[in-house]
TrEMBL record, chain B:
Keyword Transport: yes
Keywords in alphabetical order: ATP-binding, Nucleotide-binding, Transport
Family membership: Belongs to the ABC transporter superfamily.
PROSITE patterns for this protein: ABC_TRANSPORTER_1, ABC_TRANSPORTER_2
UniProt KW Cytoplasm keyword: no
Full protein name: ABC transporter ATP-binding protein
Sections of the chain in a coiled coil: none
Domain ABC transporter: 6-232
Species for this entry: Mesorhizobium marinum
InterPro entries: AAA+_ATPase, ABC_transporter-like_ATP-bd, ABC_transporter-like_CS, ABC_transpr_LolD-like, MacB-like_ATP-bd, P-loop_NTPase
């Protein structure tokens, strides 16, 4: 005989292990269907969500020019460009000018009105993309003045709101407009940000004739430029720098085609990151299924492992053989998940079209899919390493005697360390991939905590069952015994169902509380109306008119300007590092005001309020929380650009602002002398708690008739819009969360099925000892119900805590525990455990005793 | 005089912990010469299978020394002993323990592959032919009779050409006629290759075919009488 043992090199060992693994897998994948499904689901959720997000952002990038309306866009609030600025813009290329403002469109007879987002364009519009109207009309015919009326176009929504048809006439400000066409596509809609109301597209001449544009009116002027030749990113950056250098105080915000819809892109990013975390939870829940499947598989392979060892295989070799098998099986799940994830942008395209104003670019997004695959591999390894490590330690003596390896026994140190290391890497990657690291860290921490606590809950339930007093009912006694006996289902059922249910309870509570706020609590506390663009000359007359129309109401009015923070302590805000939660204050224009006295809904947190007749250097009072987030303190300076002028003010005080009061609140309140002489309009709120819908409608109508330039926003309408958005977001969140629940149910059904195999033996023995079918069904039902109930109670407690944290601490809204969520959770847990449990047990009870007994 | 291939000296072993612990081997000493056939007999629970595991390096002893094929096994790691076993010890089990997802040929090739044999499948094919199974190489264990499965197991144990062949009740799961054929095969191959054969059995007839019998009772060797020559 030849071939004495020679030491094998590592690549050879691996090749041999791969060969052995492939031979081992000839037995098929029957025990791995749940494993594969769990991994596929989680990978599909993560890959799909990120692919869809990338398809939208790719759409934004691809359509950058038409979304932006030009190659580069300059925006100004409340003022048009100066001649010098215009000359600069014209020097760059072809300029298209537009003006945006909110206003009230009224029927000619004054019987009804609707809030509109008016957008006035010039003849050059659009520079890119196509304006589509129905019917398609030449520009002069669409917008020109004819028979005493300018032309305009609006989407179906406005026609529906006012109950009119194309050809109808409406009034805007003091002029009449004829709605000559339906607006089908407005190419640069996405870059205008989120609109509360339907668009009304008209000409600049028409807007100017309406009398709505007054000094201080909240108008946004946009100048979109088509550059003469194709420009690179560097060219665009250079133009920005030139503009900033030539007009340092212009106060314009400049965007290029590379960043056409920043708000949309940022929201898509944030939302997809959140959904990725939810998807990752689904994957982690599925990880429990992976661990169960690997453990069951390796249990069945103990004889083979011991045989390998008796024939000279090392423990490490055995480990590699089975690791390869598990990774190959996970690879199948990952592949299936990636295929589903890759298809999602195509499937989501139609659904997205209704609420994202951007054509999503459908395609395959390798980076999104790679991230999902990486998570899939890491979850597999994190959950499979411990059972694999235990398999490595199966002694060859197992062939001689059934010593067994205890399920709870930990494998040797390196495997435990490796599994823990991979779990940490998984958590760090999840946090790293997320934009908001703080939220991601809390989320990951919560999942880890829930995981650990669920294990403890499982053990506690078993401990309680072990120590419960002996009961008279045979069924209950059997049930309690089943809960704590060795190899009981309790730990795996509590863990698998608990994670999914907890996530669902958390999301249901956040969603429910938000809706309660929007539907009930907020409208009760909020004012009934906001009035925007009340001119200084008419503010007193307006106040008297409203007092007459709503005698019991309370009108609050404040001066309102728009301004953008450009420097903090003399440093350009672009160069200041600010945490994400405070970044919104520095982004774009903010409403600002001035006041002699501390506003009603604020309290002083630090510093002093200025005297009523103060006339020194400009001072500002900053909202305490936002100041803390940005890192501002008393004595720091803030420079804001208002109406093209940079104004620097020193922070004199910090205020606690009750944002949730929905009254007029500003981040920054300046000393009155800061804006002396600056043209501005007023913002007012009217609170009439007892007003009926009819009274509100009458008041809205009366104000619009008498003050056509004043824009009136009914708070209930605005909240309806918010509610609709919450509903759409909620649908997406629920869809992804349901993936976690499906993973939970898969794992649960797998655990129950594995338990049922052991149960055949128990049931047959009990039957031979005289137990009736009824007793056994009652015992199994009670067992499943008790475990399900314990899991539901934990899910309610943990989900309630997480929901409270998000609602009360992150969103700063009143949080309530919702009984309907509690009831639904308990019912879901019981239906799932008892339903799945009994479905399997039914087959168990049908087994004939003899064949089983012969094999005992 | 050559050194015995098996040398156990004052070997003790306790299995289990605490109240459930059992003192299985109590100061066992045993020497077996190269090429000798030894049958270990004794009632259930006497420690004979455990003794076999100690010989195969599958069980570590608490006290005493274990020297097999000239190598001291005490203090070696599990993986070192596995490699040692692959080279020096072939095992035949009562329940065959073939790997169900591998063909007969692949089962026989496993120890050769693990040992880095340059052509494991050709060698495995020769071994299968030697036990009369050249027609069954591509069959899976489930497709073979009990006797055929045990022949595959013997071929697998012989394949690396070990110095010691250990068999635990090799005919225990077979009918009388098949059992006799398997025993014939086992003894013939051991003698042909000059291997040391140690087998555990309850079957007095099988034990009597060994040159030497070792009787165990309560973890101790009762007697080690030399018997007549191994029947052909």
């Amino acid at each position: 005989m030849t071939g004495r043992a020679t030491p094998s090199s590592n690549p050879r060992t691996f090749a041999l292990a791969l060969r052995f693994a492939l031979r081992e897998m000839r037995g098929g994948l029957s025990g791995f269907l749940i494993f594969i499904a769990c991994i596929a689901l989680g990978v599909a959720a993560i890959g799909g969500v990120n692919s869809v997000a990338r398809s939208v952002t790719a759409g934004v990038a691809e359509e950058g020019q038409s979304l932006l309306g030009g190659d580069i866009r300059f925006e100004l609030n409340q003022r048009q460009v100066t001649q010098a600025e215009r000359d600069f813009l014209v020097g760059l290329g072809t300029v298209a000018e537009s003006a945006d403002m909110r206003s009230m469109a009224r029927l000619e007879d004054g019987s009804d009105q609707a809030l509109v987002e008016a957008k006035a364009v010039d003849a050059a519009y659009p520079l890119y993309g196509e304006l589509v109207t129905e019917p398609a009309l030449p520009r002069a015919e669409l917008f020109g003045e004819k028979n005493g009326a300018f032309g305009a176009a609006a989407p179906d929504l406005l026609f529906e709101r006012l109950g009119i048809q194309p050809g109808a006439r409406i009034k805007l400000g003091t002029r009449t407009f004829e709605l000559r066409a339906r607006l089908v596509t407005e190419p640069d809609a996405a870059s205008e940000g989120f609109g509360f109301a339907p668009r009304l597209l008209l000409s600049l001449e028409g807007l100017n004739a309406s009398g709505l544009v007054q000094p201080g009116s909240l108008v946004e002027h946009a100048y979109k430029v088509r550059l003469e030749s194709r420009t690179s990113e560097a060219d665009l950056a250079r133009i920005r720098e030139q503009a900033a250098a030539a007009f340092p105080e212009a106060g314009w915000s400049i965007r290029t085609r590379l960043n056409a819809a920043p708000a949309l892109s940022a929201n898509i990013d944030r939302f997809s990151q959140f959904l990725t975390l939810v998807g990752l939870t689904a994957l982690v829940v599925g990880g429990v299924g992976v661990a169960n499947a690997v453990r069951a598989y390796l249990d069945g392979k103990r004889g083979v492992i011991a045989t390998f060892k008796s024939l000279g295989a090392s423990g490490g070799f055995v480990f590699v053989v089975y690791l390869i098998q598990i990774l190959l099986i996970a690879g199948l799940g990952i592949l299936a998940g990636l295929m589903l994830g890759a298809l999602m942008p195509f499937a989501a395209q139609a659904a997205l079209a209704s609420f994202i104003p951007v054509p999503a670019e459908t395609g395959i997004y390798p980076a999104a899919l790679a991230m999902a695959a990486l998570f899939g591999v890491l979850v597999t390894l994190a959950f499979a390493l411990l059972p694999l490590g235990r398999a490595r330690d199966v002694p060859a003596t197992a062939l001689f005697r059934e010593l067994g390896f205890e399920a709870g026994e930990l494998p040797r140190g390196p495997y435990v360390i490796a599994a823990a290391g991979i779990a940490v890497a998984l958590a760090l990657l999840a946090i790293w991939f997320s934009g908001d690291r703080r939220i991601a860290t809390i989320f990951v921490g919560a999942v880890v905590f829930a995981f650990l606590v669920l294990r403890a809950v499982g053990q506690a339930v078993q401990w309680l069952a072990r120590r419960s007093p002996r009961v008279r009912s045979v069924a209950l006694r059997l049930a309690i015994g089943n809960i704590h006996r060795p190899g009981a289902l309790t730990p795996s059922v509590v863990l698998s169902l608990g994670l999914g249910l907890t996530l669902l309870v958390t999301l249901a509570l956040i969603d429910g509380n938000l809706r309660r706020q929007i539907a009930g609590t907020l409208p009760e506390r909020a004012p009934n109306f906001f009035f925007v663009d009340v001119q200084s000359t008419e503010v007193d007359g307006f106040a008297s008119f409203v007092a007459e129309q709503a005698p019991g109401g309370k009108l609050v009015r404040v001066p309102m300007l728009r301004g953008r923070i450009v420097q903090l302590n003399g440093i350009d805000v672009q160069k200041v590092q600010v945490p994400p939660e405070g970044a919104w204050v520095l982004r774009g224009d903010r409403g600002i005001t001035y006041a002699r006295k501390l506003p009603e809904s604020s309290t002083l947190a630090a510093g002093e309020w200025w005297p009523e007749d103060y006339s020194g250097e400009p001072l500002v009072s900053f909202s305490a929380q936002e100041a803390g987030e940005i890192g501002l303190n008393i004595g720091d300076t803030v420079t804001v650009n208002v109406l093209g002028r940079d104004i620097t003010a020193r922070i004199a005080s910090l205020r606690n602002v009750e944002w949730e009061s929905m009254s007029i609140n500003f981040v920054m309140v300046f000393s009155p002398n800061t804006f002396a002489g600056a043209p501005h309009s007023w913002l007012a709120t009217l609170t009439t708690p007892d007003a009926t819908i009819a009274e509100e409608a009458r008041l809205l109508n009366a104000v619009t008739r008498s003050f056509p330039a004043v824009t009136t926003v009914r708070v209930k309408d605005a909240l309806d819009v918010v509610n609709r958005i919450v509903e759409q977001l909620g649908t997406a969140i629920r869809a992804v969360a349901s993936v976690a629940l499906v993973a939970s149910v898969l794992v649960l059904s797998g655990a129950l099925a594995a338990g049922n195999r052991a149960r055949v033996h128990d049931a047959v023995v009990l039957k031979t000892l005289g137990a009736t079918r009824r007793t056994l069904i009652a015992a199994f039902s009670l067992e499943y119900a008790l475990i399900g109930l314990a899991t539901a109670i934990f899910a309610l407690f943990a989900g309630g805590l997480a929901g409270w944290y998000v609602v009360a601490q992150v969103m700063r809204l009143p949080s309530a525990f919702l009984p309907e969520v509690a009831l639904a959770t308990v019912v879901a847990a019981l239906v799932l455990t008892v339903g799945f449990g009994l479905a399997g047990t039914w087959r168990v009870l049908g087994h004939k005793a003899a064949p089983v007994l012969r094999n005992l | 005089m050559t050194e015995p291939v098996i040398q156990l000296k004052d070997v003790s072993l306790t299995l289990g912990h605490g109240a459930s612990s059992v003192h299985v081997l109590k100061g066992v000493s045993l020497e077996v010469e190269q090429g000798e056939a030894t049958g270990i007999v004794g009632p259930s629970g006497s420690g004979k299978s455990t003794l076999l595991m100690v010989l195969a390096g599958l069980e570590r002893v608490d006290a005493g020394t274990v020297r097999i094929a000239g190598e001291l096994l005490n203090g070696r790691s599990e993986d070192q002993i596995a490699a040692f076993r692959g080279r020096n010890v072939g095992i035949v089990f009562q329940s065959f323990h073939l790997i169900p997802n591998m063909t007969a040929l692949e089962n026989v090739a496993v120890p050769l592959e693990l040992a880095g044999h340059p052509d494991p499948f050709a060698a495995a094919e020769r071994e299968l032919a030697a036990v009369g199974l050249s027609e069954r190489t591509t069959h899976y264990p489930g497709e073979l009779s009990g006797g055929e499965q045990q022949r595959v197991a013997i071929a697998r144990a012989l394949a690396p050409d070990p110095r010691i062949l250990i068999a635990d009740e090799p005919t225990g799961n077979l009918d009388q006629a098949t059992g006799r054929q398997i025993a014939d095969l086992l003894f013939a191959k051991a003698r042909e290759r000059g291997m040391t054969l140690v087998l555990v059995t309850h079957d007095p007839a099988l034990a009597h075919r060994c040159a030497r019998q070792v009787a165990m009772r309560s973890g101790r060797i009762e007697a080690a009488p030399a018997l007549a020559a191994v029947p052909a």
